[in-house]
Amino acid sequence: MAAESPILSLRSLAKSVPGGRVLFEGLNLDLAAGEFVAVMGESGVGKSTLLNLIAGLDGADAGQVAIDGVGLETLDDDARTGLRRDRIGFVFQAFHILPHLTLGQNVALPLVLQRAPGAEALVRAGAMLDSVGLPGRAGDFPHQLSGGEMQRVAIARALVHRPGLILADEPTGNLDPETAGRVLALFADQVRQSGAAALLVTHSDVAAAAADRVLTLTRTGLVERHGG
Amino acid sequence: MAADRPWALAARWMILGEWRAHPMRAVTAAVAIAVGVALGLAVHLVNASALNEFSQAVSTVNGDAELQVRGVSPAGFGEALYPTLARLPGVAAASPVVELSASAKGVGEPVTLIGLDVLRAAYVTPSLLGRPVGADAAHGPTSEAAFDDNAVLLSQAALEALHVRPGDPLELTAAGRAVSLRVAGVLPGVAEGQQIAVMDIAAAQWRFGQVGKLQRIDLRLDQGADSGRVRAAIARVLPADAQLVSRESEARRSDALSRAYRVNLDMLALMALLTGGFLVYSAQSLAVARRRAQFALLRVLGVRRRALLGQVLAEGAVVGLAGGVAGLGLGLGLASGALALLGGDLGGGYFGGVEPELAFAPAAALVFLVLGLLTAMGGSLIPAREAARAQPAVALKNVGDSVDPRVAPRIWPSVLLLAAGAAAAFAPAVGGIPLFGYGAMALLLAGGVAAMPWIARTLLTPLQRLQVAGAAVDLAFKRLWGAPSQAAVALCGIVASTSLMVAMAVMVSSFRGSVDDWLGQVLADDLYVRAEASGGGFDPTTQAALARTPGVARMVFQTSTSLRLSADQPPLAVLIRPFDARRMPMIDSATPPAGATPVWVSEPAAWLYGWKPGQSIALPISGKAAPFFVAGIWRDYSNQHGAVALDSADYTRLTGDAFRAGAAVELAPGAKPQAVIAALRARMPPGLNVNFAEPKTLRAFALRLFDRSFAVTYGLEAIAILVGLAGVAATVSAQTLARTKEFGMLRHLGVTRAQIVAMLATEGAVLGAVGVLAGIGLGLVMSQVLIHVVNPQSFHWTMETQLPWTLLASVAISLVAAAAGTALLAGRRALSSDAVRAVREDW
Questions:
Q1: Which ipTM score applies to this complex?
Q2: Cystine design at B252: which of B262, B316, B564, B568 (Cβ 3.0–4.6 Å)?
Q3: Min Cα–Cα distance to chain A from B293, Å
C-alpha cells in the first residue's frame, strides 16, 4: 500500500452487466503516484469495464471511485469530462489515432484541450514524439505508420499533458511479441519518468511483468498475485 | 463558454482533417444548399424586380395623386362629381381624367388613351405632361398642342408600338370611334415600356363619345389635411359607379394581382433548399456514423458533449455558409438569365408590358443566406445530437449500427407530425396566402420521413425471413434489416425528393387535365369571333346581319367589361352572353325567384367575395348598385380575380348597351369554317378589326399559355428532383465506401467480387424501391393538400385529381435505377482496394 494519499481510490465497487450477471462486487484499490499496477483476468471478467468506471465513462452499481480525493459520483458529466481531460491519460489496444490529423496534432490534442496555445502544444507534442522514438515525424499522417509506431504515438498522447493517472487497456494486444516487448518497455519507462500512477489491464503475463504489482480481477474484487 | 474555448482549435483541426480526407462529401452538400439558395433568391429577385417596375408604371399613370376616385367599370361616372370633389374641404387640387383603351389601325398593340386638363394635371400628375416637338414646340411647353382637338402626345413605348414619329398623323380607335389625330409631342415622364397617349380632356370626351363622362379624378390634399376626414367626406358624395382608391390600396391591388403566384414560386424554390437540407442530413449522418469511434475517443480525452454537438453543427454551418455565398452569386446569374428568357413574371403573364431591370436586394440576399445556413445546420442537428449522446465506452468498440434491429422503431412521433399536418390542412388562408397549407406540407413531409425507420422495418422484415437461393441477395436482405439506422438515413433523401416531386407532378397534371376538360366544355362551338374592344363591337343591326350569314346555324353574341368592387382587389370580369347552363361548367346552382335578375358567379369570385347560390348581391352594373340573385357558381380558370356572368337581355335592359364585342358561331351541317369566315368578314362594318379562331386553335393557345406559366414550375421541380437524385447517389455511395472493411472480410470468407457487387445492387434496388413506394404514397397525400388547400386558397379554383401514370412510373424506375446503379459503382470502387488492407483498417 502506498504511504502517501492515493491518486486513485476504489471503495466497495460493484458492477453487473445488463441481464443481471455480476462482474465484481466489493472491489477496493488504492493507487499512489509512481505506482504501476497490472490487472489481469479472463476475457469477460470486467477488466475494460473497470477502466470505464475509473474514467467516469460508465457508472458503478455500488461503491465509490475517487480521483485525487474527488468522488466521481458527486460530479456531473461535464465535471467528469474535465477531470478526465486534466488528470487521466489513455492507451488503447486499437490505438485510436485520428486518421485525418498529423501525428503532432494527435499528440497535441490533450494539450490543446487544456487551453495550451496551438504552437506551444505542437512543440511539446514534437518533443514527446522524440522521446517515444519518433523524431521528426510530427508532420506525418497515421496511415504511414506501422502498428508499433501507432502505439508509440498513443503513448505519447497519453503522457504529453502530464496526467496523474494513466489507464492502459491491452496496449500490446494488437502487436507482435517483439514489437510488444519494445512498446511495453517504452511505456513502463515513460510512466516511471512521468511519476504518474498507471493501471494496465491485460491478459498477457509478459505485459503484466512490466508492472510493479500484478492484481487479478475476480468476482469478489482484486486479488494480489505473487510470483507470477 | 470559456471552458470550451480551447476546443475551438481542436475542432478546427478535426473539421479541416475530415474535409481534407473527404472533400467531395462536403462539396456535394454545399452545392445542394447553393442550388436551393440560388433558386430562392433568383425567383425572389425576378418577382421583386417585376413588381417594383409594375408599381412604378402604375404610379406614373397615377402621378402624385394621393387619392383617386375611379369608375367601377370602364364606362366611368358622371363628370358632375368633379366640381363636388374639388370644393370639398381638404382637397388642394382635383384633376379630371378620361381613360380609354385605344388601338391604331393595323397595329395589334393596345394603348392607354388619357384625356387630361393640363392646367389641373400640372398640380397632381406632372409626369403625364408632355413636351411638344417640332412645329408645336415653338408655342412653348404648355403650348396650344395641349388644347388642340387633333393633338396627341405619345410615350416612347407608344411611339415605337404604333410606328409613328412626332408630326405624323395617327388614327386612334377607342370606345367604338375612330378619330384622326396628329402626334404633337412626347411624354418624357412616363416610365419605360408604358404605352400611353395623352390628349386634351375636352377633345377626348367630345371625339370619343365620352361627353359628360370621366373614368377617374386624381386628388391632391391640402398640406396637413386630415386624410381620414377627407376620405370620409368623399365617401359621402361618391355615387355607386365610383370608388375611392389610395396609393396604399393601389399598392395592395398590384400586390394581390400576382401575390399567390409569387408566393407559390417562392415556396417551390424553397423546396429545392429543403431537399438540400435532407442531403446535408444524409451526409452528416453518415459522417457521424463513420466517425463514431473518433468522437468517442474525443469524449474520453475530455471533450464535453456540447463541444461535440458544436463541432458537427459548425461543420453544417460552414457547409451552409459556403453553399449560401455561392448560391447568392448563382442566384444573381440565374435571375438575370430568367429575366432575359422568361420576363419579369417568369412566364406567369401577370406583368404585361413591363420590362424590368434586375435590382439586387441585399436584405433578401441576407434572408436567403441565413435560410441556407439554417437549413444546413438543421440538417446537421440530429446527427450532431447523436454524436454528442453516444456512449463513449460502447462507441470505442466501433460496433457499427447502434440500433438493435430487433427493437421496433417508434412510430408515434411520425403519427403526431402527420396528424398535425392533417389538422393544419383544414385551417384557412392567412392574408390570402395558404400559410397553414404550406405548413401542412412541411409537417406531412417531416412525418413521412420520421416514419421511415418503421416503414422500412415493416417492409423489410418479411424479406429478411425469405429463404432465397443466392447468397448475395440473402446477404443484402439481412444487411438492410440489420442496419436500420443506415437504411433510414438513405431512405430519408429518397422519400423527401420523391414525395415532393410526386406532389408537384400530380398537382400540375390535375390542374392541366382540369383546364383541358374545362376548355372542352366552354369552347363547345365551331367558331369564335372577336372584335377589338376599342372598336365598340357589333351593333344590333350588324348582329342580325351576321346571324343570317349562310353556313351559320346559330350565332351567340357576347361581350365583357369589368367592375371594381373593392379598392384592394383587381377588377372583376363581367361576362355578358345569353345564359345557357348546358354550356357552362356549373358547380352549384339555385333557382331565381320571379322578378329577380340572375347572375352566375365564377368559383374565384364566390371565394373572394364570399358569394353563395341563392344570395342577393348588389352590383353597380348600370352605374348604380342594383340587386342581383346569385343563380349559380361555375368553374372558371380564365379570370383568377373573379368573374360574373350576366344574361345578355338583362344587361341590355339595365344599361341600354346592345353592342357586343364577340360571338360564338355554330355552323350549319356541312358548312366549311373558312367559307363561313370569309362570308362573315364580308358582312363586317368597315374599319372594325376582327379576329376569327376555331376552338382547337384557342384550346392549343390556352394550353400553351398554361405550359408557359408552369415552365418555371417544371424547371424548379426538375432541379429539386436532380438535387434529390444527387442526394440519393451521394448517400448510397458514401454508405458503400464506408463498408470497405466489411467487403474485405467477405472476400476473406470466399465471397466473390461478383457476389458482392450483386449484393450491393440488390441492396440499392430494394432501398430505392422501398423509398419510392413510401415517397409516392406520401407524395399522393401531399398532392391532395396542394389540390384541395394550397390551390383553392391561392388561386380560388378547384380541380379534379388526375394522376400522371407515365411520369410516376418513369421517376420510380429512375430512382430505383439510380440507387442500385450508384451502389454498384461505389461498390466496384470500394472493391478495388486490397481486401487484406481493408480488414486491418482501424476506422
A1: 0.78
A2: B568
A3: 8
